[in-house]
Amino acid sequence: MKKILIIGGTGMLRKVSEYFIEANHEVTIIARNLSRLEHLKNKYKEKEDSIQIISADYANEILFLESIHSLLKSNDFDIALLWIHSFADSCKNQLIEILYHKNSLIQIYDVKGSAYYHPQSLLKYNDKCYSIYLGYQKENDTSRWLTHNEISAGTIYAITHELKEYIIGQVSPWEERP
Ligand SMILES: NC(=O)c1ccc[n+]([C@@H]2O[C@H](COP(=O)([O-])OP(=O)(O)OC[C@H]3O[C@@H](n4cnc5c(N)ncnc54)[C@H](OP(=O)(O)O)[C@@H]3O)[C@@H](O)[C@H]2O)c1
């Protein structure tokens, strides 16, 4: 049984949250919308002791990091999964440092949009993390973005196989993105 923290686990990664809950891990999910968080938790009434939900907004860096500090007073995590929009990179990098400070052995999986993979990208990435890149899918002569199911399945695969770097779909050729 692992202790898993998921930031942004109620949207496209909801099935990842559900996968780890159903596999009897202790799962803490953070997002803003409390009713969506409660909806997810209520689906697993028999496992409610192993599910923790926290409403916090990473756009408010100070308050968000305060809630992380108070969470870590009584919790240790083996795995953290981060789906944090790039506008909050500063908050994400501080979060990563805080999590490592608490447990140097934590595995942090950072889900990134394909823009992070572009060779000329100015977006910085943190090489302490395991990286999961969201690519696109080619279908016949066209390409499309990933579905939520594909994103969740790929993320579960990367975490359960402890992959340092994993691309869901494909990121090249860059010019063939949808
Ligand atoms: N390459 C690709 O295929 C690719 C790449 C990137 C994105 N996408 C697509 O883009 C769509 C939009 O992305 P999205 O991020 O809106 O997806 P999402 O996963 O549906 O929502 C983001 C998740 O993070 C939480 N969240 C958002 N802002 C937050 C904040 N400020 N503080 C704390 N938690 C926050 C959300 O819950 P709350 O709203 O309750 O906070 C939710 O759990 C997705 O549906 C995905 O399919 C595709």
Lateral arrangement of strands in the main beta sheet: 3-2-1-4-5-6-9
Second-tier CATH architecture: 3-Layer(aba) Sandwich
Separation of the first and last Cα atoms:
39 Å
Beta content: 15-25%
Tell me the count of domains.
1
Which class of secondary structure composition applies to the elements?
alpha/beta
Q: State the major sheet.
A: 7 strands, parallel
Which small-molecule species are bound to the chains here? NADP nicotinamide-adenine-dinucleotide phosphate
Question: Please, what is the oligomeric state?
Answer: single chain
Morphology: globular
What string gives the helices and strands in order?
Answer: EHEHEHEHEEEEHE
CATH topology: Rossmann fold
> What's the CATH H-level superfamily name?
NAD(P)-binding Rossmann-like Domain
Which stretches of 5+ consecutive residues score pLDDT under 50?
Answer: none
What is the rounded Rg?
16 Å
Q: Overall pLDDT, averaged?
A: 93
Walk me through this protein's architecture.
This protein is of the alpha/beta class. It has a single domain, classed as NAD(P)-binding Rossmann-like Domain (Rossmann fold), CATH 3.40.50.720. The chain is 33% helix and 24% strand. It has helices spanning 14-22, 34-42, 61-73, 89-102, 148-160; strands spanning 3-7, 26-31, 51-55, 79-82, 107-112, 130-134, 136-139, 142-145, 165-168. The protein has a 7-stranded parallel beta sheet with strand order 3-2-1-4-5-6-9, sandwiched between helices. A two-stranded antiparallel sheet has the order 7-8. A hairpin with a 2-residue loop joins strand 7 and strand 8. The radius of gyration is 16 Å and the shape is globular. The chain binds NADP nicotinamide-adenine-dinucleotide phosphate. The site of NADP nicotinamide-adenine-dinucleotide phosphate has 22 residues, from loops.
